[in-house]
Amino acid sequence: MSLPPEAANILRSGGLVAFPTETVYGLGADATQPNAIARIFAVKGRPATNPLIVHVADASIAKRYAMTWPGEATKLAEAFWPGPLTLVLPKSPLIVSVVTAGRGTVGLRVPDHPLALELLRAFDGPLAAPSANRSNRISPTTARHVRDELGDAVDLILDGGPCRVGIESTVLDLSGVTPTLLRLGGISRRQIEAVIGPVKSIGQIAAHEPAMSPGQLPVHYAPQTPAFRFENFADPVEGAHTARGTIRLGSKNEVEKEGLRIALPRHPELYARHFYEVLRELDAMNLPAIHIEMPPQQPEWAAVRDRIVRATKAIDH
Ligand code: AMP
Ligand code: MG
To answer: Which single residue of 65, 226, 245, 294 could bond 282 by disulfide (Cβ 3.0 to 4.6 Å)?
Structure first.
């Protein structure tokens, strides 16, 4: 799909445009218009306390919306933009405060998708965009997911095919003394530390930690079907005659489906690409439960493990 000529004008007149990125589909609105941003929160049912990420076409434009731009930001933008890394920096007054949930900082990112970049260049402004799903539901990774969930509530949906990364961006806070990881995602801690040295981590599942018990983490999103996780050495209901859906680790580089059993690739990037899509598929089947096998406790799986933990409860033994 090429960019429809009306897309930028819809944004300028305060409308909502859903668009593809390499992570998940975004629901975009002009970050300088309070009424447009209010529509995002209303359509998603998103709490006003949860800030939105602002998308821009390149790093030089990002700088306009940050009050300070430290050396780390330059290095990280050179290394990873366009790409799945959001940088949190002191905000410029040009970004309205509803976007940042009243905070003095703004999350900025350049998405790595040709249609998103075309939209950003045509609009020529800062585009606030959370994932294009209702709050606490599964993030959309195809245009069809967006249509099914938001339909007419959105003025335009751009179809750029399935998302390559499949989970949300990594969020790194550069507004304090020490760079701090707020969310794991498409760029790993190791990749970031290779560019700027050691970073702190907040509220994330460290790779060496066991799956957390329910309640320790706020549920960020979840399927509507009761969903549980298990470590691969202990699938407590294996063999039981329940009509539960199961997501396990397969051996191949492709998704394998056998009725309610789905095997995802044993490769963190490929797993992430397909995770939300298969979770959505199982969630639509009205099953009594979904069980998900946890991938290995290794650094390269940290972002995927984080998303599974947020979507599930640990099975009680
Ligand atoms: P999403 O839910 O994918 O739209 O991403 C929004 C998330 O990015 C928020 O829930 C925060 O975790 C993070 N974020 C965005 N802006 C800020 C900010 N100004 N300060 C801290 N975190 C932010
Ligand atoms: Mg979201």
So the answer is: 245
